[in-house]
Structure formats: C-alpha cells, structure tokens
Amino acid sequence: MKQPLTEFKPPMNMPKNPKIRAAHISMMTATGLTVLKLVTGWLTGSMAVLSSAIDSLLDIIMSVANFLAIRHAEQPADPKHPFGHGKFETLATIIQALIIGLSGSWVCYESAHRLLTGVTLGRLEGGMIVLAFSALVSWRIGRFLLRTARETESSALKADALHFTMDVYTNLTLLAGLVAIRLFKIAWLDPALSIVVALYIFYQAFGLFRYGLGDILDERLPETIRAEIARIIDQHSDHLIGYHRLRTRRAGSQKIIDFHLTLCRHMSVEEAHEIVDHLESHMKEKIGRADITIHVEPCPYEVCPGRHKCPGDYPLIKDTNATPEQTDRS
Q1: d(Cα 43, Cα 29) in Å, to the nearest integer?
Q2: CB 252 within 8 A of CB 154
Q3: 190-194, 198-202, 225-229 — which is least confidently predicted?
Q4: What is the largest CA-CA distance in the chain?
Q5: What is the pLDDT of residue 291?
Q6: Using an 8 Å Cβ cutoff, are 286 and 228 in contact?
Q7: ∠ CA 281-287-291 to the nearest 5 degrees?
Q8: Residue 304: per-residue pLDDT
Q9: Which residues of 263-301 are buried (b: 16+ CB within 10 A; e: fewer)?
Q10: Regarding beta strands 290-298 and 242-251, do their DSSP bridges make them parallel or antiparallel, or are they unpaired?
Q11: Residue 238: DSSP 8-state
Q12: pLDDT at 259
C-alpha cells in the first residue's frame, strides 16, 4: 500500500534502527521549532508564543532523553541485566512526565503574573504564522512517531508522539487566541489562553507519569494481550491439560510472560520441550517482542487413562484469576 502524500518521510541517511531513527528525527524537529518560537516570542512579546517555545524547548530535552534511553534499551541482555535494558525507556517516560509538569507550572505562573501586571503585544502576525507552521510540523512528526511507537511497541516514543500531538492542539488554541486579540484588541486573552494550555499540559503529564509508573511497578499487560495468550494456549489443547499462574509485565517495549503448563505425566522430556517451543514461537509471532518462560508440570490426576487419552478425557484447566496466588488450580 502506498503511503499518503502527507505522511512524514525520514531522510535517507538516518540510523537503520527504526526506534533510534525516530528519536533522532524528533530531536532535530524539536530543536528547529524551539529556535523559531523563541525568536518570534521575543520579537512579539506574546506569552502565548513564548509558552509554546518553552514547550518546544522541553521537547528537545525529552527527545534527547528518548534518544539516549532507546539506544541503551536496544542493547542486548547482559549478566547484570538478564531481562535486558528495556526499562530505560520507562525511565525516560517518567522523566518526560516530570519535565512536562514543570513546564506547565512555569507557563501558569508567568501567565498569571502577566494577567495581574498587564500585557503589551506587538507584531502578532509573525506569531500567528509561526504557530500555524508549528502545528503543521508537529502534526506530521507526531503521526510518524506514533506509527513507529506502535510498530516497535516503544513507550518512550509513544510519550514523544503524545507530546507532539499535544503541541498541535496547543498551537492551534494559541493561534486562535492571537487572531482574536488582533481582531478585537483583547490583550488579556493571551495569558488567559496560556493558563488553559498549562492545565492541559498538567493533564498530559499525569497520564504519562501514570503509564510509566505502571511499568516500574510491574503492572500486568493489558487484558487484550492476556486474552490472546489464553487463546493461543487453547489452540494447543489437544496436546496439554491446562495452564495456571499466568503472570505478565512490561519492560519498555519488551513484554515478559511466564506461566505453568500442565502436560501428561507420561510424556517424554523431548515431547514436552517441543510443545513448549511451539507455544513460545506462536506467542511471539502473535503478540510481538516478548520474553517467555514456561514451567512444565505433570497432570494432577491420580488415575491416568493413558498419554493418548489424557487431554481429551479431561477439561482444559484454565487460568481465569488475575492474581498468581489464586490461579493454582491443578
């Protein structure tokens, strides 16, 4: 399928790794927009443009943090980090949330101060052009980052894409405010709109922080992924008795899954290993990048009808509970 003409296309000389390439492009875009907005904000005296410039300045910090975190997270596991380095992405997400929150605080404070002391504006046309241009660029780079985040399951890129998408709305809101100020001579509307933007920044920062904290505290994977795991196991019910103690968590873009698998007690080690390998490969194919650990257990029935009848004569034991301590059914 051909890409739409409006889709962002990265330069040809970018790094080959899609996550690192996306972080690199994000960093360059944020730098260009920041310089443009700072110069325009200084010339016009508009708090709206300056608040947008500060937001873009923080984009640079976050994009650099993403670039370093993703590059480190992509390194293979080592003896000190046997599960890999994926949580560097999570750490970058939390840092972004805190920085976004601080930027919202500054914008809110400065806007309130200007409301109390008065506002002097000039050359608003330049600010309007810059905000419109910034909204367009942020929209295109945001779509590119979000697509890459979905393809690579990167929480850091998802956070970066969210912030660029947020920039689209804030720039358009501030642009509408400058137009209103230009037409109706309402100078106080400039800092008032900036306070609204600051509140929106707080809201987005809280969402990012909550998302990153879930990874740090080993929150389980979404129910859709757990349901997919159960569906894959059910597809192999002819060769197994059941499963229990399913546990899932995330480390950056890496999904970590472990569970107990119940097989016929008369199976050979080689046969059990083949079933486990097939399950692992099927899960990785369906749910993407994952580290899967499967503990094999013999069937719990005292009277065994024979290895070729065992799975068919008994119902599949399923892990239906959410917590590991409640899932040991066999």
Answers
A1: 22
A2: yes
A3: 190-194
A4: 89
A5: 85
A6: yes
A7: 60
A8: 67
A9: bbeebeeeebeebbeebbeebeeebeebbbebeebebee
A10: unpaired
A11: G
A12: 93
* pLDDT given at position 117: 73
Assign 3-class secondary structure to 253-310: CEEEEEEEEEECCCCCHHHHHHHHHHHHHHHHHHHCCEEEEEEEEECCCCCCCCCCCH
Q: Which residues pair with 263 in a beta bridge?
A: 298
What pLDDT score was predicted for residue 329?
Answer: 35
What is the reported pLDDT for 330? 36
Residue with tokens 């393809």: 151
Type of residue at 316: L
- Write down the pTM of the prediction: 0.57
Query: Which residues lie below 8 Å from residue 40, measured CB to CB, with a gap of 6+?
Result: 46, 49, 53, 126, 127, 130
More confident residue, 302 or 249: 249
Angle at 287 between CA 75 and CA 311, to 5 degrees: 125
Q: Given the structure tokens 């998802």, which residue do they identify?
A: 158
Token look-up 């998302």 returns 211
Burial class (CB in 10 A: 0-12, 13-18, 19+), 97: buried
The per-residue pLDDT for 306 is 62
How far is the CA of 262 from the CAs of 282, 297, 329, in angstroms? 18, 5, 10
174 in Cβ contact with 49 (< 8 Å): yes
Ordered by start, the domain boundaries in the chain are 18-216, 223-326
Integer Cα distance of 279 and 209 in angstroms: 34
Architecture of domain 18-216: Up-down Bundle (1.20)
Q: Give the residue ranges of DSSP H helices in the chain.
A: 18-44, 47-73, 87-117, 124-152, 155-184, 189-216, 223-235, 269-287, 310-313
CB 271 within 8 A of CB 240: no
Architecture of domain 223-326: 2-Layer Sandwich (3.30)
pLDDT band, residue 321 (cuts 50/70/90): very low
Q: Which two tokens stand for residue 262?
A: 């119940």
**Lookup result for tokens 């509140």:** 199
pLDDT of residue 260: 92
